[in-house]
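Progress narrative, work stream C.
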Amino acid sequence: MSLKVIENEVVTCARCPRLVAWREQAAAAPPRRYRGETYWARPIPGFGDPAARLLILGLAPAAHGGNRTGRVFTGDRSGDWLFAALHRAGFANQPTSTHLGDGLALTDVWITAAVKCAPPDNKPLPEERDACSPFAAAELAALPDLRAILCLGGFAWDGALRLLRRAGHPLPPPLPKFGHGAQAAVAPGLTLIGSYHPSQQNTFTGRLTEAMLDDVFAAARRAIS
């Protein structure tokens, strides 16, 4: 299945009634700073370079970030950190991602989320995670040059392991555990890399610093070389 076909299937999905209601509620009652904007309010497909050797996997779009702009990690503080780091590492042509059509171009990277709709409290239910997993699995299969998966947070790490198992990759026992900077060879020629999520909870408290994020991207660059 091509990435374009996957995108079309993602944006028309309405499998999870709770997530449909939440993404539309967020669009109908935005915070004051976004009043008057037209929200995307649909599932968010992945985007980037179809020839990517690096896949970045997040948790889910933010209610007033990707759910507003139509592009994952775009228009929120997590994205501010992520795209600045991608630019410093040479994966992005600019350090910001504010809206569709803003000129952002990624090289050698595909970015997606394990769950394609914004969930309440950023916590998808297990059945919502499972209902959405075929989309990420299809993206994984449509990226033939992939050499590494960078997981932003433990949810993404566990999601990546599920995707690889679903794809028939024999995983090493015991299963590798998430940690910032963790690396594991999970399939022939494929490395799993862990990073704390660039959420405000982590960046405001200093749990994740710019230097720590830069180190992770340096490791990712080595893994795909």
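Work stream C, second folded protein:
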Amino acid sequence: MKETPNFNKKKFLYYLSRSNYEHEWGTVYRKPGIGSRILAFFLRLIPKVGPFRAVNFKIPTQQTEDMYVKSVNDTVENYTRLLSHVGGEKLDLPNRDCDTGRETRAGEYILTDKTYAHLIDQLSSKSSEPLNPGLRDDVLKFYADLNAPIATKKDAKAWQQLQDQLQRLKERTAPAAQPSAQNQ
């Protein structure tokens, strides 16, 4: 707090009461044992070269600390804003990569590629059920660039199956709007 004049302690602290913390994680804290203390002592003595370079901890600069605090504050504010929309009729969460803040794209992250492939597999197994047009459009938008380095391409059989499922998804149309009671 002394080094950062605009430090807001209330914003930085995790919003959790002591009783909720203890309920969630318990009241037992196990202090480091004698073995851990001896290891820490020797690690302080060993020169930080070769394989021990990894234990050479460097204190972040003031600029790095400021960036970290700002990112935590931005995250808390964004999360709070999104939570305020939960009580409304429509919750509209953007389809963004939480690490980069950019829109989700095929080939950017292996787990995202696998998740979308699994989603398409589930959607194609339920081909007789109505398909949400927003979901259909999102999946087709994700796979708009098939030249991207998509993780599924590593397995030729899975890639062919994905392309077939994508083609079937493109051919599927959204369910027709039900006539309202007023029109009858």
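The helical segments are 9-12, 18-25, 34-45, 62-86, 110-125, 133-142, 156-171. No further action is required on this item.
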